[in-house]
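User: My instructor asked us to take a sequence, write out its structure as tokens, and then describe one feature of it. I'm not sure where to start. Here is the sequence I was given:
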Amino acid sequence: MNRKTFCNKFSKFLTDLYSENGKFTTQTSVSDTLSFYVIKIDTENKNTIDSSNLVELFWNYDKESFGETEYSKYNTINLIKTNLKNIMKNVKYTISLSTSNDNDVESTDTGVVTSDFLIGVSDEKYKSLYEKLKTITQLVSPFFKTSKIEYSIENYELVSIETDSYYPSEKLLSIILDNFDLSSEINTENLFLNVI
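Assistant: Let's start with the prediction itself. The structure tokens for your sequence are:
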């Protein structure tokens, strides 16, 4: 298992743990520095969880992720904030999506690797938005002549995009907003994408 996949699975586990399976809004990230893991958790949950054994809890939940490595060899730095309010309010996020599956690429043995955004987010509205953007990326990429789109999101709204297309990003954003309503299910019929 590559480093990115491990971080994603660990982050997802921590999100479910601290959010109590969606009861409390929670955002987590896990970064692999090669020497140790940096765990960041922001949660509305005020209940105290012993953070000294997070790796052991994850190991008991998913031993396959660790392979032959003993969980006791994993050192962590835990940055945990509990009993927070409005974690997902007034924040900006960038979501990069590609028509190829970048997660299939093995991570290198150098540099810091961090779990993907939205893997460690308990907010179902953001998860739904992410799935819609994945569908949109697949639909518009052939028309936009691009294989990757970077979406900027603010309070669940799409505010800008960046692509490697030779068409202006502002024009492409306008086409997306004209064709798709992100507040409802994606309708793939009667699209006007070839208007560039």
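For the description part of your assignment, you could build on this observation: Confidence is low (pLDDT under 50) at residues 103-107. Try explaining in your own words what that tells you about the chain.
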